[in-house]
UniProtKB/TrEMBL annotation:
The protein, known as: Phenylalanine--tRNA ligase beta subunit
Organism: Brachybacterium muris UCD-AY4
Self-association state and partner proteins as the record states: Tetramer of two alpha and two beta subunits.
Taxon lineage: Bacteria, Bacillati, Actinomycetota, Actinomycetes, Micrococcales
Ranges annotated as biased composition (Basic and acidic residues): 77-86
Residue ranges occupied by any FDX-ACB domain in the UniProt entry: 778-871
GO BP terms: phenylalanyl-tRNA aminoacylation
Superkingdom to which the source organism belongs: Bacteria
Alphabetized InterPro entries for the sequence: aa-tRNA-synth_II/BPL/LPL (IPR045864), B3/B4_tRNA-bd (IPR005146), DNA-bd_dom_put_sf (IPR009061), Fdx_antiC-bd (IPR005121), Fdx_antiC-bd_sf (IPR036690), NA-bd_OB-fold (IPR012340), Phe-tRNA-ligase_IIc_bsu (IPR045060), Phe-tRNA-ligase_IIc_bsu_bact (IPR004532)
Annotated EC: 6.1.1.20
Protein encoded by which gene: pheT
Length: 872
C-alpha cells in the first residue's frame, strides 16, 4: 500500500488551505483511492534546539567516557535551579543537565534535545533519570534516534546543527526542532486497485488529487532535462525469443552511466526521511536514489556496479537448469518463462544478472567500493513480471509497479533524474553516451460514442462532462462524427501513456463516472421477484446447517487445498476415485497443490488444530464443495480473446471442468458436553454420527437407509453406508458415517473413538419430495408392540425394518430399532434385532384381533424377506 507524505505530495500539486492527512485522504477517496491508514508525526512532545554551554568528560570504571553537559534549551524549558548535591558547570546560567555518550560535538554547538515528555520513533518515551551519578534531564539526539538515518556529514553521533552538518540548518535555543527537521509530517496510506498502477507514485497520486480538488498539478517529468541525440552507451541486445501472449517481455531498455561517484557518500537527510515515511528503509546513497525516483515518478530502476558488468547486456528468456542468487541471498532455479537480464561475464561467457522487473542478482550489486554505476530503466511486459514474481514468491516494489503497467515514456527521464541526484550528493559525472534500445508502444485510440456514458451508468452526462473528464485524465479527445448505424456524437479518444488499463469503451465510462462523482449515481433497488426468494438447494443447505448447530455442533470453514500425502493418511485404496484430484498450476502453498476430493480431507486438520490449541473435545461441521478430476479429458482449450468462443469451444471448456458437488461433513470426538455434579457427559460415538446424518436428512425432507459397509477412513466394523431412494426406486449411496479408523485418529491426534460423517448434500436434498403432504393429526390411540428377530449377522437392520413395514401395512405408524444383541444364547453368526413398533388406524381404535393379525403378518414378512425368526 503506497504511503503519501503530505510535504512530498505538496511538491507536485497545490494542497487545499489547511489541508491535513484526514482531508487529503477524503479527497483521494472521492476519486477512488481508498484510505488504508493515516500515520501521524514521527516525533511528539518537546523536541527543541539546544546550545551546549559546557561539557565535562568523565571517565567511568567500565572504560567508557561520558559527557556531562549543560545545555541551554530556551527560556521556556531551562531550569533555574539544580540539585546542589549534583555539582555542575555553568550553574550561573539557567540550563539543563544532560548525560551524553557521543563525542562529535563541543561547547557552543547547536544540537537537538528531546526533553522529558518527548516520544521518539519506536514509542520511545523520554524521561529524567539518574545515571552515572547525575540526573540526566533529557537527551541529546542522533539522527538514528529521530528516524532520520546517520549524519550527512559522515560523523557518528548526535546531530550538530550549529556547524552546518545538517545542510545548513540553524536555529536558536528553544526553537521547535520537530518543524525544523520535518518530523511532524503526516502520511496517508492508500489502497490502489490493480488497474491503477500509476498511483504507486507521488506523480500519479498528485494528479488524482488535482482531479479531486482542482489544485494546480506540476508533472515532475517536465522538470527533468532528458538527454537527446548522443547514443553509444552500454551495448544492449533484446533477445526475447519466447514472448508470452500480449507481446515481447521487454519493449524498451535504457542504460545511463555515472562515473567517479562516491558510493559511501551519505544519503541526504531529507531523502532518508521521505523514504522512511513512504515505508522503505534507507540503505545507501545509490540504492536510496533509485528507490526515491521510483516512488516519485513510478519507474523502477536498478543500479549495477559498472566494473562488474561485461557488455553487452542481453535481455532473454531463461534456459533449463539456470540459477541465480538474487539480492536477498537466495539461490533460485529459473523457469523457461522467466525473463532475464544477462551479460557475458560468466565462465562460459553467459551470466545471469537478474530477474527482469523483479530483483537483481548479487554478483553485480553496488557496494562501498563502487565508483562507476550503470543505471537501468526499462519497460517490461506486465504478464511476464507478474508470473515471475509469483513463481518465485518474490514480490518486490519493482514488480508491484511493472505488473500493473508503467508509463513507457518514463525510462530515460527516470534514469536521468537518478543520475543527477547521484552526482549531486555523491559526486562524479554523467556519461553523455546513452543506450535507449527498443521502441515505445503508444496506446490505441478508442472510438467512443458520447451516449455510451449514459447508457452504461444510467446518468444523463452532458457532452461537456464527458469531454472534460476524459481530457482531465490526460486523454487526447477528437471529434469522430456520428457512430455507424446510430445517432449522436462520436469521439476518438487516445488514452495517456501512463494509463495502460484504458483499452475499451467501458473503461472510459468508468473514468467519467469516477470523476463526475459516484455520488451522482442514484441508488436504484431491484424489484424483488415473487416467490420465497431462496432456491430449494439454498433452503436445504440452511436447514441442514441449522439442524447441526441445534445439535451442538460448530460450523467451520477450511481451505479446499490438500497435500498429496492426505490420501495415504486417510487409508484410501490405490484405485479409490478420491485420489483423482485436480492439480493447481500455481498453488498458494507448495505442500498443498491439490484440490480436495472429500470434505473430511480438510475438516480433520481443522479438528486437530482446535484440539492443539486447548480444546478438550471437538464437534464441528462444514458444508463445502469437492472436486474430482476428469483425468486427461479435463484439459480445457484456451479460446481466442479476439471474438466470442463458439458453442463447441464453450462445450469443450464445460466438459473439461472438474466434477464438483456440495458435501457436508462432521467430525466429533471427546465429551459431548460439559461435565456437572452428576458426572461427565457421555462421549461422542459412532451412533451419534449416524443420528446426525438422520437429522440432516430430516431437515431437508429426505429419509436415509442405513447398512453396514467398509469405507476409508472409517473403522471397518463400525461404518454405516447411507443411501436414499431415487426417483427410479433404486437406492443411491450418498455418504458414510461411523467411527474413524484408529490409524486415522492417531494421525490427526483426535480423541479415542472419534467419529465422522460425510454426505453428498446435493443428492440428499434432491431425494426429498418436491411437495410435502400434510399428515392429519391422529384421533385414535396407538398400540405398541415390540419384536425381536434373530437373523444372520450380515443382514442389515434396514432390511428387517422394511420387511416389518411391508408386513404390517398401513397400520405401521413408526418402526424404531432399540437393541442389537449377539451372544451364545442366539448362536454363532447370528444377531438379535429388537424393534419398537407403533400401530394406529385412521378408522378407529385397534382391536385385539387387528393387532394380533398385524403381528402375524409382521412375523411372516420378516421370515420370508430375510429369514428372520421371532426370538422367544
Amino acid at each position: 500500500m503506497p504511503r503519501i507524505p503530505l510535504t512530498w505530495l505538496a511538491e507536485h500539486v497545490t494542497l487545499r488551505d489547511g489541508a491535513d492527512a484526514e482531508s487529503v485522504a477524503a479527497d483521494l477517496v472521492s476519486v477512488g483511492l481508498e484510505e488504508e491508514a493515516i500515520h501521524g508525526a514521527q516525533v511528539t512532545g518537546p523536541l527543541v534546539v539546544g546550545r551546549v554551554l559546557d561539557l565535562v568528560k568523565e571517565p567511568q570504571k567500565n572504560g567508557k567516557t561520558i559527557n556531562w553537559c549543560r545545555v541551554d534549551v530556551g527560556p521556556e524549558h531551562n531550569v533555574a535551579a539544580d540539585d546542589p548535591k549534583d555539582p555542575q558547570p555553568g550553574q550561573e546560567q539557567p540550563s539543563r543537565g544532560i548525560i551524553c555518550g557521543a563525542h562529535n560535538f563541543e561547547a557552543g554547538d547547536l544540537v537537538v534535545v528531546s526533553l522529558p515528555g518527548t516520544v521518539l520513533p519506536g514509542d520511545f518515551a523520554i524521561a529524567a533519570r539518574k545515571t552515572y551519578g547525575h540526573t540526566s534531564d533529557g537527551m541529546i539526539c542522533s539522527g538514528d534516534e529521530l528516524g532520520l538515518g546517520p549524519d550527512p556529514a559522515g560523523e557518528d553521533g548526535i546531530i550538530v546543527l550549529g556547524r552546518g552538518h545538517a545542510e545548513g540548518l540553524t536555529g536558536e535555543p528553544g526553537d521547535d526542532a520537530i518543524a525544523l527537521l520535518g518530523l511532524g509530517d503526516e502520511t496517508v496510506e492508500i489502497n490502489v486497485t490493480p488497474d491503477r498502477g500509476y498511483c504507486f507514485s507521488m506523480r500519479g497520486v498528485a494528479r488524482e488529487y488535482s482531479h479531486a480538488t482542482g489544485g494546480a498539478f506540476v508533472d515532475p517529468v517536465t522538470t527533468v532535462d532528458a538527454p537527446e541525440g548522443t547514443r553509444g552507451g552500454v551495448p544492449v541486445q533484446l533477445r526475447d525469443d519466447a514472448p508470452l501472449r500480449g507481446g515481447e517481455g521487454c519493449t524498451r531498455f535504457v542504460t545511463l552511466e555515472v562515473r567517479g561517484t562516491d558510493a559511501t557518500a551519505p544519503t541526504p537527510r531529507w531523502m532518508s526521511r521521505r523514504l522512511t515515511q513512504a515505508g522503505m528503509r534507507p540503505i545507501s546513497l545509490i540504492v536510496d536514489v533509485t528507490n526515491y525516483v521510483m516512488l516519485d515518478l513510478g519507474q523502477p530502476l536498478h543500479a549495477y556496479d559498472a566494473e562488474k558488468v561485461v557488455a553487452p547486456i542481453i535481455v532473454r528468456r531463461a534456459r533449463a537448469g539456470e540459477k541465480l542468487t538474487t539480492l536477498d541471498d537466495v539461490e533460485r532455479t529459473l523457469d523457461a518463462e522467466d525473463l532475464l537480464i544477462t551479460d557475458c561475464g560468466g565462465p562460459e561467457g553467459d551470466r545471469v544478472l537478474g530477474l527482469a522487473g523483479v530483483m537483481g542478482g548479487a554478483e553485480t550489486e553496488v557496494t562501498d567500493a563502487t565508483r562507476n554505476v550503470i543505471l537501468e530503466a526499462a519497460t517490461f511486459q506486465q504478464i511476464t513480471v507478474a508470473r515471475t514474481a509469483r513463481r518465485h514468491r518474490l514480490p518486490s516494489e519493482a514488480s508491484k509497479r511493472f505488473e500493473r503497467g508503467v508509463d513507457p515514456h518514463l525510462p530515460l527521464v527516470a534514469a536521468q533524474r537518478a543520475a543527477e541526484l547521484i552526482v549531486q550528493y555523491g559526486g562524479g559525472e554523467i556519461d553523455h553516451r546513452v543506450t535507449d534500445e527498443g521502441t515505445i508502444t503508444e496506446p490505441s485510440a478508442i472510438d467512443f460514442p458520447i451516449a455510451d456514458a449514459e447508457r452504461v451508468v444510467g446518468v444523463a452526462y452532458t457532452p461537456e462532462q464527458v469531454r472534460s473528464s476524459l481530457e482531465m485524465i490526460g486523454c487526447t479527445v477528437e471529434e469522430a462524427g456520428a457512430p455507424a448505424g446510430g445517432s449522436g456524437d462520436m469521439l476518438r479518444v487516445t488514452p495517456p501513456s501512463w494509463r495502460p488499463d484504458l483499452v475499451v469503451r467501458e473503461d472510459l465510462v468508468e473514468e467519467i463516472a469516477r470523476l463526475v462523482g459516484y455520488d451522482q449515481i442514484p441508488s436504484v433497488l431491484p424489484t424483488a421477484p415473487g416467490g420465497r426468494g431462496l432456491t430449494r438447494s439454498q433452503r436445504g443447505r440452511r436447514n441442514a446447517g441449522r439442524a447441526l448447530a441445534e445439535a451442538g455442533l460448530t460450523e467451520v470453514a477450511s481451505y479446499p487445498f490438500i497435500g498429496e500425502g492426505v490420501f495415504d493418511q486417510l487409508r484410501y485404496d490405490a484405485e479409490d476415485e478420491r485420489r483423482r484430484a485436480v492439480r493447481l498450476l500455481n498453488p498458494l502453498a507448495d505442500d498443498e497443490p491439490l484440490m480436495r476430493t472429500a470434505l473430511l480431507q480438510t475438516l480433520l486438520p481443522v479438528a486437530r488444530r482446535n484440539l492443539g490449541r486447548g480444546e478438550e473435545n471437538v464437534a464441528i461441521f462444514q458444508v463445502g464443495s469437492v472436486s474430482l478430476s476428469r483425468g486427461e479429458a479435463g484439459v480445457s482449450p484456451v479460446p481466442s480473446a479476439a471474438q466470442r468462443p463458439s458453442n463447441e469451444e464453450l462445450a469443450a471448456v464445460q466438459d473439461a471442468l472438474p466434477a464438483q458437488t456440495r458435501r457436508l461433513a462432521v467430525v466429533n470426538g471427546g465429551a459431548s458436553g460439559p461435565g456437572s455434579w452428576m458426572g461427565d457427559a457421555p462421549a461422542w460415538g459412532w451412533a451419534d454420527a449416524i443420528d446426525l446424518a438422520h437429522r440432516v436428512a430430516a431437515s431437508v425432507g429426505s429419509h436415509l437407509e442405513v447398512r453396514q459397509a467398509e469405507h476409508a477412513p472409517f473403522h471397518p466394523g463400525r461404518t454405516a453406508e447411507l443411501t436414499v431412494q431415487g426417483a427410479d426406486g433404486e437406492q443411491t449411496v450418498v455418504g458414510h458415517a461411523g467411527e474413524l479408523h484408529p490409524a486415522v485418529i492417531k494421525a490427526y491426534s483426535l480423541p479415542a473413538r472419534s467419529s465422522a460423517l460425510e454426505l453428498d448434500l446435493e443428492a440428499v436434498i434432491a431425494a426429498a419430495p418436491a411437495v410435502v403432504e400434510a399428515v392429519p393429526v391422529p384421533t385414535f390411540p396407538p398400540a405398541k408392540e415390540d419384536f425381536a428377530f434373530v437373523v444372520d449377522q450380515d443382514v442389515p437392520a434396514s432390511a428387517v425394518e422394511a420387511a416389518i413395514v411391508v408386513g404390517i401395512g398401513d397400520l405401521a405408524e413408526s418402526v424404531r430399532l432399540f437393541d442389537v444383541y449377539t451372544g451364545d444364547q442366539i448362536g454363532e453368526g447370528k444377531k438379535s434385532l429388537a424393534f419398537a413398533v407403533r400401530l394406529r388406524s385412521e378408522d378407529g381404535t385397534l382391536t385385539g384381533e387387528q393387532i394380533g393379525a398385524a403381528r402375524k403378518r409382521c412375523i411372516r414378512a420378516v421370515e420370508d424377506a430375510v429369514g428372520g425368526v421371532l426370538r422367544a
